[in-house]
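Practice set, problem 2.
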Amino acid sequence: MLNAFFTIIKHEMLITLRSAHAWLIPLLFFGMVVCLFPLTLGPDTDVLKKIAPGIVWVAAVLATLLSIENIFRADAEAGYLDLLLLSPQPLAFLMLAKIISHWLVYGLPLVMLSPLLGMVLQLTPAASLTLFYSLLIGTPVLSMMGAIGAALTVNIRQQSLLLPILILPLYIPVLIFGTNAVMAADNNLPVSGDLALMAALSLASMAFAPLFTSLALRTGANQ
């Protein structure tokens, strides 16, 4: 089982990394959206610092939406998804491997880019560090919840129009807690509460999202 788990992670990462546009476009989109706000707001640093946490988190959500539809679409078109459904290994366990590989390719680069964007948005060192931690804890939730929506719409044409409507409400809690944590750090307030809630959301999504994703895929396959 563990061999199948790590094989899927390696396979998914290699395929994605070979297609440079697949993982570069969300990353470039994330950076460009964040960098455009200082240009439009001008020299008013106070306003920029107040809205900077929301800017970064909204940009992270939008960048995830660009990539999440790719998690199952290519597999369904190539027939690889049918092999996963017929595998003797637990499907939820295999879905966890696919979701982790998606986060490593798409989510982790956003996290690594966040300290630089914190400097662009003129955040304090404490706020930039909290931004890094909040994205590190929160972006797995984006991949987990997004995988459920992608599984529900994998057999639907023009799923890119329906997918954001399905999963954006699921992103609201982590978006609120992540933004509040960075704002609290910028005001020298405790951030442990917001980060703990985000960690709880991440652990809960890791426990339930692979199961719901596998159920959604099996339901779609039986239709």
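Problem 2, part (b): a different protein.
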Amino acid sequence: MSQNRDSVPKKLKHDAIVEVVFEIRFDMTGSPEIFFGRLADFGPWRGFQQDALPASNIPPLMRQTDPNLRYQPVIQLSEPGGLRSIRIGQQVLSYHRMAPYVGWEVFRTELNQVFDALFQKAEGLSSVSRLGIRYINSLRKDLHGIDAITDLDLKVEIAKEQVQKSISVIYLSEHPGNTQSIVRIATADLVAGLPPSGTALLVDVDVYTKPGFKTTDIEDVKRWAEFAHTEEKKQFFRLLKDETIQELVVN
């Protein structure tokens, strides 16, 4: 992987982003039902369709006491057309933006609305305990010149023979500010569910705060979002060969 690039491109000629998710985990003392209602009536999301998610069928006490269920969303607010949605639980709020990606400037504005909604509407918000931003990318031969993992700036060998097909790679990186990232790379045949048509590789970059993170300041959340977005881009572009970047970036 290339380590010495001073900057990362702002935009590709053909965007690879399939979905972006920003998740916030938090603690509050107020009623979850009142919180859900306030978010459903929040100005930018007013008129979004409201649907119960599968976890809503699990008794609240069971969800709260089971670590595997505690951060499961129970309600989804969906924009007409399905490009944006907000998933809400007793201690979690996640914002989802589907392709086509609107660019960081617009997405950051939407995230600021999410942060405002949480800090204004969550009665008794005591702390934010985890932040995460995740970009899922579909790399294709026709759009990106990527047909196999050997087209990335990454080498996986067994007995000195480079692995090319049917592969899944996961690695973790440490970042400043009590932050980590996990990058998952998989060929389309090993992706759960149905990847976008033409996908050769799915690249999933997940940047998140480590255990022990806590804040009560919305400005801390905004600063971390900016920082994490930069780290996510670095992780994605360091996978691409220099010649691939030169071919794909918008000048």
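Answer key, part (b): Helices lie at 32-40, 60-65, 104-121, 141-144, 218-237, 242-248. The radius of gyration is 19 Å.
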